[in-house]
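dumping this here so i dont lose it again. seq + smiles for zinc ion
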Amino acid sequence: MTEPDPVALTQALVRVDTINPPGHEDRCVELLADLLSAAGFACQTHAFAPRRTSLVARIGSRLQAAGGIAPLAFTGHVDVVPLGNTAWQHDPFGAEILDGRLYGRGASDMKSGVAAFTCAAIAQASRLRDSPAGPGLSLIITAGEETGCEGAFAMAVSPQARELLGSAGALVVAEPTSNVPLLGHKGALWLAAEARGITAHGSMPEQGDNAIYKVARAAVALEQFRFETGPHPLMGAPTLNVGTIRGGLNINSVPDAADLGIDIRTVAGQDHAGVLQCLCRMLGPQIQLRSLLDVGSVYTEPGDPWMQRVFALCATRSGQPTPPRTASYFTDAAALRGPLGWPPVVILGPGAPELAHQTDEYCQVQRIQEATALFTDLIADWCGIST
Ligand SMILES: [Zn+2]
C-alpha cells in the first residue's frame, strides 16, 4: 500500500466536521481506523455516547505481556471547538493551503498532530509487525477532549477500555506546541459554589433569606484565598478565579438560590481533594461546592532518561536546544496517564498553540512534515529501529 501523506491526511481530517458539541467524531475515527487497519494495526473503538467514538490502534507489542518493554503511546483528539462569532476568511472545513499554511478548524488543535503520528506510525508498520518481540506502538485517538477530556476519562473508567489501552512506557501528546517539547501542564478544578435561601417579597426582605449575600461573601473571601502549595519552578503558582456569579429571579424578590463558578489551576504535586477540603473549610456550611471538571496536572522531570532523549532528538532536528517549559492548556494525558501506568509524558505537536481555537486557524505545512519526522525518530528510538 502507499503510505499516506501527513499533510493530505490533515486536510482529510479537517474536512470532516467534528465541532464539539455535538462532536460526532465517528467519521474521523473510521477514516483513521481504515488506514491503520490496512497497515496492520489492531484497531478497536470505544464510544462514550452515540457517534462519540475514540480509537486505540496497536502494533508489534504481542510479547509485552510477557514482561517486555511497554509500547510507546501517542495520543490526540479529533474533536474541535466551535467556529466563534467572527466570520472566517477561509472555509473552516476547506483545508485549503495558501502560502504554506493549511487553514481550517482543527488545523493546529490538533488534526495535524493526529495526522503526523498516524503517518509516522504507518511508515514504520512493516518493521514493527515483523519484530513482534519489540515494544510496539499504541495510538490513542480520542473524542470529546475539548469539553473536559470526556472520551479519555470514559476510557479511563471503563474496564474494557482500560484493557484496550494496556500500559505504555512513554506517552506523546501531539497537542500544538510548534514542535517544541513541553514537560507537562497545570491541572484544572472547576467548581460550582452554591447557596440556598428563602424567597420573599422584595419589599419585606426580613421575611426571606438572601442567597446572593451568601455567595457574595464567598466571592470576597475567595479573592483572599491562599494555596498551601507554593509556586512550581516551571508552572508558576496555582491560581483561583471566580468566573461567574448567578442568582435572583427578579429585582423585587429575595433570591433563594445563587451560585459562583470557580476556576482553579493547580500545579504538579498539588492534590485536588486537598484543595477542595481547604475551600470547604473556608467557605463554611452556607456554601455547597460541586465539582464541574477535575483534570489533574501532568509533569515529567526534565531529568527523566526518555525525556532527555526526546529533548536531544528535538534539538538535533531544530538545530537548537529548548529550555524546559510547560503548556498553558490541559490535555488528555491527565486522564490517560494513570491507566497507562504513569509513563513519562511529553507534549509535542506541529500546531501553533497561539492559533488554537482562533478564527482562521491554520497550521504551517512545514511543521506537519517536521513533526512526522520527529515522531519517526521517537518511534525508531523506542523500538530500536534504525532509520
Ligand atoms: Zn487540543
